TrEMBL record:
PANTHER family assigned to the protein according to its UniProt record, in alphabetical order: ANAEROBIC GLYCEROL-3-PHOSPHATE DEHYDROGENASE SUBUNIT B
Taxonomic lineage: Bacteria, Bacillati, Bacillota, Clostridia, Eubacteriales
InterPro entries: FAD/NAD-bd_sf, FAD/NAD-binding_dom, Metab_Enz_Cyan_OpOx_G3PDH
Key words, A-Z: Oxidoreductase
Protein name: FAD-dependent oxidoreductase
Keyword presence, Oxidoreductase: yes
Annotated Pfam families: Pyr_redox_2
Superkingdom of the organism of origin: Bacteria
Length: 359
């Protein structure tokens, strides 16, 4: 059984950030991911990031992914793809399997960056072909260069719904409407402005009530909702379409953290159940750190810096950094995270994070 100083599970922004930081300090790092390419959501993101230079402002997501992969290779990170981690054991070892074998690895520290899964809605016809999550549609269009459909209805006006809507428009689809159950948009104004200028109607206080079709999606029935989000009888209307995309939130993927014995807490603003952790990204298990969407749903830039924070902490606990160097690097990363958590959206998440740290 091969031994590593740090084993990172998940090669998205958080996992890459953690692996790079630990590797740069001299740690022997293994990065595991169940997919056949690292980078996570970054390679689906063709829009330009905004913020600061440290957060790759003006750079498209897939280009950031390529840069991070290069940095990981330069830091000496060993990357094993196509391996799904299915077991974490008290001695610090993990077991991962591909299509032909299962391999066990030993690690002094484990960083879980397992990301999140998309939420779904249940309604009559929700299993019809053509009904999918927004992330699935984004994968079709941006990764495989195949339109999921020609006439699309989007449910959800958060950043995912707005960004994927615009990207589907860029790919040549006709997005007929965005439905939002709340009485106001939930995503950033900059993203909402793009889709509105493109002529996509945004129907506030509306939801989908039924999907219709013979063998595949042909139309959706929608309705206005009251203050309790219940459909109002008599407000129904039908929109012909061949694709319905659901962008109704994300949930941290806590399965591995749970089986490893990490304490879980609940935070609605951060997506639900997540591992309890401190400001250093340390979980309740002394040798396990967490980062990214697993530690609470935020933005890709936040996930990257949380990963960097976890990787730096692991390197410090391994004795690869003295306390002064560690505190300087930690303060630098934490300062960027604090800036990302400003504004009406970030402030809510910052307060939620503080509650998790106190738990």
């Amino acid at each position: 059984m091969k031994h590593y100083d740090v084993i990172v599970v998940g090669a998205g922004p958080a996992g890459l950030g953690a692996a790079i930081e630990a590797g740069r300090q001299g740690a022997k790092v293994l990065l595991l991911d169940e997919n056949d390419r690292p980078g996570g959501q970054l390679f689906k993101q063709i829009h330009k990031f905004f913020g600061s230079r440290e957060h790759y402002a003006g750079t498209r997501g897939f280009a950031i992914g390529r840069q991070l992969l290069q940095e990981a290779e330069e830091a000496g990170v060993e990357i094993h793809l196509g391996r799904r981690v299915w077991g974490i054991f008290p001695d610090g070892s993990v077991t991962a399997a591909n299509d032909t074998e299962s391999v066990r690895y030993q690690g002094s520290y484990l960083i879980l960056a397992t990301g999140a899964s998309e939420n779904a809605l249940a309604f009559p016809g929700c299993t019809l072909p053509g009904v999918m999550t927004a992330g699935a549609a984004q994968t079709f269009a941006n990764v495989h260069h195949v339109l999921p459909g020609q006439n699309i209805v989007m449910v959800g006006s958060g950043n995912v719904g707005l960004i994927v809507t615009y990207q589907l428009l860029q790919a040549g689809a006709n997005v007929k409407a965005i439905l939002e159950a709340a009485p106001k948009l939930s995503g950033y104004a900059v993203h909402a402005g793009k889709v509105r200028r493109a002529g996509v109607p945004v129907l506030l206080s509306h939801t989908v009530t039924r999907a219709m079709g013979d063998g595949s999606l042909e139309a959706v029935e929608i309705a206005q909702v009251d203050e309790h989000f219940a459909p109002i009888p008599g407000t129904e209307q039908v929109i012909p379409c061949d694709t319905l995309c659901l962008a109704v939130g994300l949930t941290p993927r806590v399965e591995l953290a749970d089986v490893s014995g990490c304490d879980l807490v609940w935070s609605g603003p951060l997506g639900g159940k997540l591992p309890r952790h401190n400001r250093h990204m340390e979980s309740s298990r002394s040798n396990i750190l967490v980062a990214g969407d697993l530690a609470g749903i935020e933005e890709a830039s936040t996930a990257l810096d949380e990963g960097r924070l976890a990787g730096t902490r692991a390197a410090y606990r391994l004795g690869l950094l003295d306390v002064g160097t560690y505190e300087g690097r930690r303060a630098e990363i934490q300062g960027r995270l604090d800036r990302l958590r400003q504004g009406p959206f970030g402030e809510k998440r910052r307060r939620a994070k503080e509650e998790v740290w106190k738990a």
